[in-house]
Design goal:
The protein has an 8-stranded mixed beta sheet with strand order 3-2-4-1-5-6-7-8, with helices on both faces. Helices cover 51% and strands 14% of the residues. With 300 residues, the chain is of the alpha/beta class. The structure holds guanosine-5'-diphosphate. Part of the signal recognition particle protein translocation system, which is composed of SRP and FtsY.
Length: 300
């Protein structure tokens, strides 16, 4: 928790504290509630969830009458945790099947942190005793395969790659084949995120998935979104969700933004949980998303 708190951007921290300060005012008048609303909307929570939250807070504060700082903190914590929905199943499915490894497709727009996330995830899995094979199916961005291979060498995972501009599906296929040959537990496949045409993306991602499924099931399709892009991330999420069944969201760069509310917005939009969060560029800066810990880090 201490690490999470120090990693979340300072502005993110001040979001939680700002809300607490507002709620601690002697008189909670209309203006104050509007400020609460503005604070949440500025943090990208989204209009509908914000209004629901403010409504619940108003009612509960009224029922509570006089409020001690401890009561307010507990109240706000409870409501924020409810907002990020602690009931969603955030289990990451990476375990192997009888005849094939667990397969994780990492998808998203280029620049969101896909390759970095794939590398960090490999590191976490290897540290947990899993054997991992990496598939460099992002053949669009020239340096992506090198970057992934560097991660692989660092953590001790073999990287399957192809020629630059090569066919992503065939690399993905080869990566899973290699995973089977090695008896690996998990194959992580970094894909290209070209968004210029939806049909292009659909063709490519759809093909990657279909081809991989010739070996066995795809267990996770993780959509990587850059938290600093705010509402734009939501638009991306919508497009990807139309193309492929997303099983989990990775929200990166939460260390660099006050817009952590996007967690709420994107989960509502897709009906899919945020499973992992990126908190920096370093190898250790990937964490499972835990609503309670996240909110605690927010409100300090
Ligand atoms: P890709 O094109 O989606 O594969 O993106 P990359 O993995 O190459 O990441 C793009 C940039 O974002 C790189 O400079 C990464 O170091 C950086 N990055 C990735 N994740 C995070 C994160 O959680 N926090 C911060 N601050 N930077 C990140």
């Amino acid at each position: 928790l201490v690490r999470l708190r120090s990693r979340l951007s300072r502005s993110q921290n001040s979001l939680g504290k700002g809300l607490l300060t507002l709620l601690s005012r002697e008189r909670l008048d209309e203006d104050t509630w509007e400020e609460v609303e503005d604070t949440l909307i500025t943090a990208d929570v989204g209009v509908a969830p914000t209004q629901e939250l403010v409504e619940r807070l108003r009612t509960r504060v009224r029922v509570l009458g006089t409020r001690t700082p401890e009561e307010l903190r507990a109240l706000l914590r409870e409501e924020l945790v409810a907002l990020v929905d602690p009931t969603l199943d955030r289990t990451l499915h990476t375990d192997s099947h009888e005849e094939s490894p667990g397969v994780v497709l990492v998808v998203g727009v280029n620049g969101t942190g896909k390759t970095t996330t794939t590398g960090k995830l490999a590191r976490v899995l290897v540290a947990d005793g899993h054997s991992v094979v990496l598939g460099a199916a992002d053949t669009f961005r020239a340096a992506a395969a090198d970057q992934l291979q560097t991660w692989g060498e660092r953590v001790g995972a073999r990287t399957v790659r192809g020629p630059e501009g090569g066919d992503p599906a065939s690399i993905a296929f080869d990566a899973v084949k290699e995973g089977i040959a090695q008896g690996a537990d998990t194959v992580l496949i970094d894909t290209a995120g070209r968004l210029h045409t939806k049909t292009g993306l659909m063709d490519e991602l759809g093909k990657v998935k279909r081809v991989v499924e010739k070996h066995g099931p795809v267990d996770e399709v993780l959509l990587v979104l850059d938290a600093t892009t705010g509402q734009n991330g939501l638009v991306q999420a919508r497009v990807f969700a139309e193309v492929v069944d997303i099983t989990g969201i990775v929200l990166t760069k939460l260390d660099g933004t006050a817009k952590g509310g996007i967690v709420v917005a994107v989960q509502r939009e897709l009906g899919v949980p945020v499973k992992l969060i990126g908190l920096g560029e370093g190898a250790d800066d990937l964490a499972p998303f835990e609503p309670g810990a996240f909110v605690d880090a927010l409100i300090g």
